[in-house]
Amino acid sequence: MSMDINKFLDFHRDNGGTGKLFNFEFKEHKEGFLELSGEFNELCLNPDGSVQGGMMTSMLDDVTALLLIFESGGTLYPSSTDLHTLHHRPLFKGKVTARAILMKKGKNIATVRGELLNKDGKLVTTLVHTVFLIDRENRF
């Protein structure tokens, strides 16, 4: 793909609240796969010092959506119909790896798996994200 993913990450950072919060950086892309680094700061923590589960879900919501947006060249917008999250171990403040893996994409519906890995490369959270694909070019 000849487009620059950083254009999409910059747009996400400049126009979205979580884009400012998670501080995404590009790591790898191949068709149906996106890997970013992200960060959870003190605003994302439970009182016990671990990352709040909803924040992990939010990050994976963003990464799985960004894969679909990027691969469509910005012509599709994924509108969530289901987010199913499994938390496997606690996560703490700092850098993480966030992955999106396309499971199935049809004309109107797509399902993408998201994974968060801690600084040691261990799986922390898995997300299954089902979306309705909105055609941004012909939606009106």
From TrEMBL:
Pfam families named among the record's database cross-references: 4HBT
Domain Thioesterase: 49-124
CDD domains hit by this protein: PaaI_thioesterase
Molecular function per GO: acyl-CoA hydrolase activity
Keyword Hydrolase tagged: yes
Key words of the record: Hydrolase
Presence of keyword Hydrolase: yes
NCBIfam families: unchar_dom_1
Name assigned to this protein: PaaI family thioesterase
